[in-house]
Amino acid sequence: MPRYTLSKRSMSQVSSTTPSRSRNMQAIKASSNATTELRLRAHLIRNRIAGWKVRAKAVPGCPDFFFPNERIAVFVDGCFWHGCPKCGHTPKSNRPYWIKKLARNKQRDAQTRRKLRSSGFSVIHFWECQLRENASSCLQRLLTLLELSRRHS
Asked: Could you tell me if 105 and 83 are in contact, meaning their C-beta atoms sit under 8 angstroms apart?
């Protein structure tokens, strides 16, 4: 069986990102966090919760679910990409890149929440692991926020 070793040149390429590699990675756009979003969507439908839109592009941050009448933005974030404090992690390879990348994601998420709240929107956020482990608790939080919002309108 052949043995593979990395030369010093290949090792340096692992730890630093070339401009062409960076452009390539920037071109890759995820369309959605499909499995997690579908899980919440199924719960909304099963519990006959109506009045929501999926991926409202006109709303800052393009929330995963949006209740226009109540002005509630719902974000369902993947634990890895958004840095869940419970189960998110930083890959061991190319660690400096991932530390910066995940920090930028967290910073962008916080900025989006601030922008929405300052514009009069309510924001609710669920982690992928929360939906997987205790979807009924997530749904109850959302129902409580919907009811509060409907009372005040």
From this structure: yes
DSSP class per residue in 28-51: ------HHHHHHHHHHHHHTT--S
Distance CA 85, CA 2 (A): 41
Residue matched to tokens 């920037």: 26
For residue 144, the domain's CATH number is 3.40.960.10
- Structural domain total, the chain: 1
Q: For residue 107, what are the domain limits?
A: 31-151
pTM of the entire predicted model: 0.76
Q: Is residue 20 part of a domain?
A: no
What percent of the chain is predicted at pLDDT more than 70?
82
Residues 6 or more apart whose Cβ sits within 8 Å of residue 54: 37, 41, 64, 65, 66
